[in-house]
Amino acid sequence: MVNDFSGGLNLADNPSLLKENQLLTADNFQYTPTGGRIETRDGIVAAVRTNGPYPPLASSSYILDVSGGKVLYANSGRLYNDTPNSGVSAGPIDLLSTSSPPVSVRWGDPDVGTLIASGGKLQYFIGGVLSTIEGSPDCSFVSRLSGRVVIAGTTGSRIYLSGLGDHENWDIEGDTWTDLDALWIDIGYKSAGNINAITKVNKDLIIFKEDGVVYRMTGDYPDWKVFEVGHGVRNISSQTATQLANDVVFLDESFGIYLVSSVNEFGDIRVTEFGREINSDLLKHLGSGAAIWNLPGRAELWIKPDTGKKFVYVFNTIHRSWTRFTFPLEPMSAMTGEGNTYAAFRGEAINGNGTVVYKLNRSADKEFSSRIQARMELRPIPSKIGKVLLNRSACDVNGTVLLEGEPPTVTLGANDFTLREKDADGYSRIESYQHLMGDQIYFHVEVEGKCTIDQLSADVVEV
User: Fold this and answer.
1) Which of 193, 214, 288, 451 sits at 20 to 30 Å (Cα–Cα) from 436?
2) CA distance 145 to 302
3) How far apart are CA 160 and CA 153, in angstroms?
4) 154-186 burial string, b = 16+ CB within 10 Å, else e?
C-alpha cells in the first residue's frame, strides 16, 4: 500500500531503487495543502485580455509586480498595469527603456513602487506613473542593499549603488560628494567576465559573472567585502537566478540547477548541486530561454527549461520534492501576490482567446474546453527470481465536481493495460480484480478533472 507521495518525481535513480513515496511520473499533479497527498493541479483562467494590438498576444509578457489589486507587466517594451478581472487591458502606460527582458524590485517607504531595469535608464513606477531616472547609468539588473538601490549593466564588472534612501541620487564623486551619495564597486575587476545576474541572499548580494565565477558582496560602505564563492558555474541569464528563502537558486548552462546556500555554523556561503532528482531530464531540454519563478504564495518554485517549452518543473518547498506541470500554452512569467498566483502565457492562433495574463484557480479543471489531464506512475513492484502476479488492486481517490458539473474520470492501470476506469464524485475506490503477470508491475493513475489521490493498494505474489 502507498499512501504517501511526498517524495515526488525521481528521474535520477534506477526505478527499482526508488523510495516508496517517490514517483516515476508526476505530470499535472500538485501537493495538497496538508499531508503528503497529491491532487490535480489548479487550472488557469483569464485575468487580462488583449484589446487587439496591445498587448501583442504572441509576444512575451513579464509580470513585474502584483499590488493594489492590479498586475504590473511588460510586453514588447511597453508597461501595463491592469486589473486581473478577466477584462480587456487598459492599454500601455508608457514605454520602458528598451524591449529587453526587464528585472524589477519593490522600493519605497511609506509609499511603495516598482523599480524596473530593462537595459537603459532605471525607471520607477508608482501611483500609476512611470518615470525615468535620467541620471542613472544604463542597467539591466536592479536590487537593494542596505537602503540603497543596486544596478548594473551587461557590459563590464561595475555595480552602482544609489544615494542612501534615494533612488534618484546617482551623483558619483561630484564636487560636493559625501558617503551618503551614490557609490560604485568593481566585482572581479579585469576577470574577463561581464555581470549576468544579481540577486540577494540574507543581507548580502550574490553576483554572477559570465566567466563562471560567483561572488558574494557583504557589509556596508566603506567596509565592503567581496568574496569568490563559486567557480566553473555559468548562470544562463538574469531570468534564471532567484532568491528562495535564505538561498539562491540558479540554472547552470551545463549542469542544471544549483544552489547558493548559507552555512549557518560559519556564516559562510557555498555553491552546491540542487534538483538531483530531475537534473538529468532538465538538461535534455535546457536552453538560453530558461527561466525560474519563485512563487512563495504556493510554496512552489517553477523552472521553465527553454523557449517554446509548455511545461515547468515544480519544486514544492514544503515537501522539498518535484512534480511537473504541462500547460496548453507556453508560460512566459509567473508571480504570487495578494493571495493569488498570476502567470503570463504566449498566445496562439488556436488557443489563448486573446488572453495574455491568467490566474491559477482551484475551481478550474478545464483549459480551453478540455479537462486537465494528470498522470502519475509509481515505482515498479519487482520479482526476485520468478514473475509478479497481480491478483487485485485498488486506488482510493476523492473527486471534486467543479464549475462545469462533471465528475473527474480516474483510470487505474498497470504496465500497458487499463485495469479500471471510473467517474469519481467525492470519495471513491477504484477496484480491479483483473489478473496480470510480469517481471515487474508498474502502476499508473490517470485523471481527467480535479481529484485527490489518497492511496493505492495491491495484492501481489511472486510465482
Assistant:
1) 451
2) 26
3) 9
4) beebebbbbbbeebbbbbbeeeeeeeebbbeee
Helix (H, G, I), strand (E, B) or coil at 378: strand
Domains in the chain, start-ordered, CATH in brackets? 8-40+374-462 (2.60.120.260), 43-361 (2.130.10.10)
| Residue 253: Cβ within 10 Å count | 17
- Look at residues 104, 150, 97, 141 and name the one whose alpha carbon lies nearest to residue 121: 97
**Which amino acid, one-letter code, is at 230?**
G
211-260 per-position pLDDT tens digit: 999 999 998 888 889 999 989 999 999 999 999 998 999 999 999 999 99
Residue in this structure with the C-alpha cell 479537462, named with its chain if needed: 371
The pTM for the full model equals 0.95
Of 458, 449, 357, the C-alpha closest to 414 is 458
Q: Which residue has the cell 549603488?
A: 161
Contacts of 227 (CB under 8 A, 6+ apart): 215, 216, 218, 269
Beta bridge partners of 200: 205
- In this structure, of 5-14, 95-104, 221-230, the range with the lowest mean pLDDT score is 221-230
> Which residues lie across from 115 on neighbouring strands?
105, 124
User: Are the C-beta atoms of 15 and 365 separated by less than 8 Å?
Assistant: no
